[in-house]
Design brief:
The protein has 183 residues and is α/β, with parallel strands linked by helices. The chain has seven helices and five strands; from the N terminus they run E-E-H-E-H-H-E-E-H-H-H-H.
Length: 183
C-alpha cells in the first residue's frame, strides 16, 4: 500500500510562508534515519533531503504566503498548502496520511493522527522536505532583510527576531496577524 504522507512547517513563524510537502515512498523503502524533522539537526535534514528526493516515488510542495495567511488564518492557509502539495502528486497512491490536520475533498482514504511523522515514514520524509525547503527559502529572503536574521531564526519568534521587529519595523513578509503583542 502506497501512503501519501503530508506535513507542513512554518505555522508558528512571524514571517514568511507556510510550506507543506506531500511525499510517496515505495512500500519497500526504509531508512532508520528519516524521522520527524524537529528531531534532526539542520545538517542531518540537509543530507537527507537529496536522499529522500532521489529515492521517493513522488513529492510535491505547497507554499502559501504571509498575505494569504493574514487573510484566511493559519489553519486555512495550511490546508491550502497541503491541498496544493497533494494536487502536485502525479504518481498513484492508496491512502493519504496528514499530520494532525483533517482535510476535506480528498478522494482517497485519509487518516490524520497526531504525531503522524512518528508513525508513517512518508510523513516523516515530507516533514524533512518541507523543513529544508522552507529553511532555504528563509535564508534567501534574509538577503533582502538582513536585520531580522532569518538565515538563523527562519522567521520564528526568537528574541532577536522580535527585537529586530521592534527596532526596524515590519517587512512585507511579516504576518501582521501574528504581531499583535509585538507592535
Amino acid at each position: 500500500m502506497l501512503v501519501l504522507g503530508v506535513d507542513e512547517v512554518g505555522r508558528g513563524c512571524l514571517a514568511g510562508p507556510v510550506v507543506a510537502c506531500a511525499c510517496v515512498l515505495d512500500d519497500n523503502f526504509f531508512s532508520a534515519e528519516i524521522k520527524d524533522s524537529k528531531k534532526l539537526s539542520e545538517k542531518k535534514r540537509d543530507s537527507l533531503y537529496d536522499y529522500i528526493i532521489s529515492n521517493c516515488v513522488d513529492y510535491s510542495f505547497g507554499v502559501i504566503c504571509n498575505e494569504i495567511i493574514d487573510s484566511v488564518n493559519i489553519l486555512n492557509a495550511t490546508k491550502q498548502a497541503m491541498h496544493i502539495a497533494i494536487n502536485g502528486i502525479t504518481s498513484n497512491y492508496d491512502k493519504v496520511v496528514v499530520d494532525a490536520v483533517k482535510l476535506n475533498n480528498i478522494k482517497k482514504p485519509m487518516e490524520h493522527p497526531f504525531k503522524a511523522e512518528d508513525k508513517f515514514l512518508s510523513v516523516a520524509a515530507a516533514s524533512i522536505l518541507a523543513k529544508v525547503y522552507r529553511d532555504n527559502l528563509m535564508k534567501k529572503l534574509h538577503i533582502y532583510y538582513p536585520e531580522y536574521l532569518w538565515y538563523k531564526n527562519k522567521g520564528y519568534g526568537t528574541k532577536e527576531h522580535i527585537d529586530a521587529i521592534k527596532k526596524y519595523g515590519v517587512t512585507p513578509l511579516h504576518r501582521r496577524s501574528f504581531l499583535g503583542e509585538i507592535i
